[in-house]
Amino acid sequence: MDIQFTEEQELLRASIQRLLHDQYAFDARRKIVASDEGFSRRHWTALADLGLCAAPFDESVGGLGGGALATMIVMQEFGRHLVVEPYFETVVLAGGLIAAVGSAAQRAAYLPKIMDGSTIWTLGWAERPSRYDFDKVETTARRDGEHYVLSGKKVAVTAAPWADKLIVSARTVGDSGDGTGLSLFVVDRHAANLHLQSFRTIDGRRAAELVLMDVRVPADDRLGAEGEGTAALEACRDRAIAAQCAEAVGAMTELNAATLAYSKTRKQFGVTLGTFQVLQHRMVDMFIALEESISLTQHLNLSLASNEPHLSRLASGAKSKVGTAARFVADQSVQLHGGMGMSDELNVGHYFKRISAINIQFGDPAFHLMRYAQQS
Amino acid sequence: MELKLSKEDAAFRDEVRAFIAENYPAEMRVPNPETDLTKEQSLLWHRILYRKGWIAPLWPKEYGGPGWSITQRFIFEQETSRAGTLPPLAFSVTMVGPVIYTFGNAAQKARFLPRILSGEDWWCQGYSEPGAGSDLAAVRTRAVRDGDHYVVNGHKTWTTLAQHADWIFCLVRTDPAAKPQAGISFLLIDMKTPGVTVRPIITIDGSHEVNDVFLEDVRVPVENLIGEENKGWTYAKFLLGNERTSMAGIGRSTRYLQRLKQIVKSEIAEDDPTYRDFIREIARVELDLLALEATELRIVAQMARGIDPGPAASLFKIRGTEIFQRITELTHQAIGNDGLALREQPSSANRFMPGPDYGHTATEKYLNARKLSIYGGSNEIQHNIIAKAVLGL
């Protein structure tokens, strides 16, 4: 099942590596995170200019036709460099949704500006009671002539303070918890009666809670059929998980390399750390965790690329397994680096924090383990 | 779980409980006392305990201790930690104090002990160095005798709250030719001495708890040497034993476990797919805690009968830190999406944080708790100690 990457795919990977190596070293990233806005439009533009935002989309909509494997390659490299720019939110979540369920007019209106990097998007689905359940949504969308009127509150919307456009879920009918009645809407970030409360995230990014108080959205900006929101979100989550797993694999790769290098140079008791058997075995387990994660991530992305059935179950399985493996690797990397692992100056702790965030977004490993079990 | 208390001990427990309830400063009840208090605020409780005569339970009466039995000391520790009080600065009262009254001379005792008790002097620990973490005997900071002074050069690191400190107790190398453990001395250094520089180290939770301390040609009067030159390793080990005993942290873990239960109750609906998982994991950690508490009580009872606990401190350190880390992980997991948020430091009530108050410090606690299995001798080192000292391997 090992993926033999095409020349084109290897070229894509090499071009990202070159860009990030040159422009996104850890110190450069630190400056970006500490900046007022919290991300870099200049770097975002550079990534888009490389064609990354267009990479996964079909050629029929003007994309480069790379599909899930292109996303995997991009996200893996982003994971290695802890890229904070909102590729996941803009391209994977919003772009994926528009390509999947958008009308021809919506695709034509929105995708080109996603692919050239000129608009930033994100997705707001979670609410206070929803935890990781798409259906536990109280935000309502009331039809009023040629408009919908949206009211409610969304939580944990990553990249929202940076976004130009948002996709939000809301109920046209039914109550919180109902499996039907949910629809998706495109909302302008600066729409009247939309308020953001921003906060910093554990991984040095920005997020916000959205308060919608009678936000008027043209009926044409409903994304997908009315009441079909849950199915669209579920497919979106499968794509999201495939991308998150790839990002986690990138982060784990760097953690394992850093920890191994450290154990070969750091001396205590007159010998290098790597000579202690208990630490050797620990690092072997970290190696195994990464190998398994690479395998499952490739398996999931291949299945996604070929539209395999029952993908959702595999996605949940991968999210649980890779999330747990990543957490183990992150934990042990901090531990084996000793005090240095706790220091904000070293990159190790930042990988730990990014992995912690991945393990929350779209559901934690425990949630997806149970989802995997229940779908058998 | 409770010790079977005599009538007198039960009365003592009630007295301690009432004293805490009446006297613990409201000002110190902030979201995260370990990072949110100023130096002055964090000393409020210290001074109250000092006035009451309860600041140094461990100390013999002649030096200002309360003259408590082992059981009373345990009760005090249990009651104060269950009530969530911020313990007085350990580096002063628990660590350097006992070294001074055990190994120091009369002049040192008279000079330093009263100021430790009153809280006038804030101490920090100059043990770790960039090249000496788990392998503490590898310290390279040099102290060279020059007349009636030592001239000290070196770099100490992970120095907790050095930014507040008046004094630092340091392990320094006085005999570079001797075996690592044999050439170390225990030196007290005034932080105001020229050549002492403190540089903050920010940790992954965003807080400023630890520091680098640079020592450049720092002149230290020889009268600040504790005990004999080159015997510092003996004093250092004595001190580390005291440090680790307090790491079981039963009271703190018990409080955080109670809070975790409340959070799970309000965050996780019974029809949530992970509800039973949480119930099971909480039960598991509760049992771990119960077993550790029972072990602690067993050892306290043994100590009361005069039996040496041996390296029990290493067991407490390993299990106590593992349990607390697990509780912070589960708490962070329980708050779900709100766990994405991390408070900005220095913290401010004016900045927006999502979700109920009880979750606002969960992320930083979860991150900060990673240090527990590293500091005070990493958990791997504690395993080595038990393997060698108990199992004879």
TrEMBL record, chain A:
Top-level taxonomic group: Bacteria
Cofactor(s), names only, from the UniProt record: FAD
Entry-linked Pfam families: Acyl-CoA_dh_1, Acyl-CoA_dh_M, Acyl-CoA_dh_N
Residue ranges occupied by any Acyl-CoA oxidase/dehydrogenase middle domain in the UniProt entry: 123-213
Domain Acyl-CoA dehydrogenase/oxidase C-terminal: 242-374
Keywords: FAD, Flavoprotein, Oxidoreductase
All copies of domain Acyl-CoA dehydrogenase/oxidase N-terminal, residue ranges: 6-117
PANTHER family assigned to the protein according to its UniProt record, in alphabetical order: ACYL-COA DEHYDROGENASE, ACYL-COA DEHYDROGENASE FADE28
Family classification: Belongs to the acyl-CoA dehydrogenase family.
Name of this chain's protein: Acyl-CoA dehydrogenase family protein
Protein's organism: Bradyrhizobium denitrificans
Automatic annotation (TrEMBL), chain B:
Occurrences of domain Acyl-CoA dehydrogenase/oxidase N-terminal (ranges): 7-120
InterPro entries: Acyl-CoA_Oxase/DH_mid-dom (IPR006091), Acyl-CoA_Oxase/DH_mid-dom_sf (IPR046373), AcylCo_DH-like_C (IPR036250), AcylCo_DH/oxidase_C (IPR009075), AcylCoA_DH/ox_N (IPR013786), AcylCoA_DH/ox_N_sf (IPR037069), AcylCoA_DH/oxidase_NM_dom_sf (IPR009100), Mycobact_Acyl-CoA_DH (IPR052161)
Domain of life of the native organism: Bacteria
Keywords associated with the record: FAD, Flavoprotein, Oxidoreductase
Segments forming domain Acyl-CoA oxidase/dehydrogenase middle: 124-216
Matches recorded under Pfam families: Acyl-CoA_dh_1, Acyl-CoA_dh_M, Acyl-CoA_dh_N
Cofactor(s) of this protein: FAD
Residue ranges occupied by any Acyl-CoA dehydrogenase/oxidase C-terminal domain in the UniProt entry: 230-391
Family to which the UniProt record says this protein belongs: Belongs to the acyl-CoA dehydrogenase family.
Name the UniProt record assigns to this protein: Acyl-CoA dehydrogenase family protein
